User: Fold this.
Amino acid sequence: MTPIQLNVTPIGIKFLQEEEMPVDFSIVKNPQDISYCSLIRLVRDEEEYSKGIIVTKDSIKICKWSRVILGFKKPVKKFEKNIPIILEEPVAGIFLFNINTPKEEHPLAQFIGNPDIIQMIDTQEIMTSIIDFLGIESFTDEYIDQLQTSALAIFAKGKIDGGLDAKKLEKKVKRIRRFNRIWDSKLILNKVVFNSLTWSMKSNTVCNAFAPFLEKNTALYAVCMNTVVIPYLKQKGNVSFIDTGGIAWMETSHKYMVMGLPNDIYKKIAAHLTF
Assistant:
């Protein structure tokens, strides 16, 4: 088979318990007070974080859904209780790293070769190639009729029973893509609006107010729930449209999608990927 050329290096994700946490953050950094999507971008793009990042509960202060989704905080506020799928087991930290990070002399080398989830961000064309190689059965179909949670329906036509009928599917796909396209425009992502948005999303009140609108129009939890927690809990892959956080703080094009694969599934295709 011809290798699949990825546009973005995959990210390895490892959930850590207290006894697995590093004793200091001099090599693997622990940024504070930003969003989870920003942490992914730092690992992907910034040399300072080339050894990876440890995410802790104090890392995430913007876009507060992810703290609950990723197991750092129990749901208390209304918008937190409305999150459909969360990691309920207590998590001390999450190790994020580029999948090609060298293991030699790395303080967390044991986890680089054994992540829980590998997350990929790429075009629909690339996602189609990966799904075709792995087989649709490698992906959870539990959310086939919930386009904000899983975009598998657009890859699974005629392969899986159930899901949305063709007209409803087309309508929802258009709405999500239109919303993401607007979100990715200078109308939203100019400096003034972006800074105001980032500041406001530190507020529980703002998150609570925004949640119903975002849940209706975009894949709100794409980068955390859809492609990290769901693959981790189901031990099957999931694919999702990008969301507002992925566009804004991860600095990813609205044309891209997100995929999460458990490590055992990723290993089946790893040798056929180049990046």
Observations:
- Strands lie at 4-5, 11-16, 53-55, 93-98, 117-123, 238-241, 256-262, 273-274.
- Residues 4-274 form one domain.
- The radius of gyration is 18 Å.
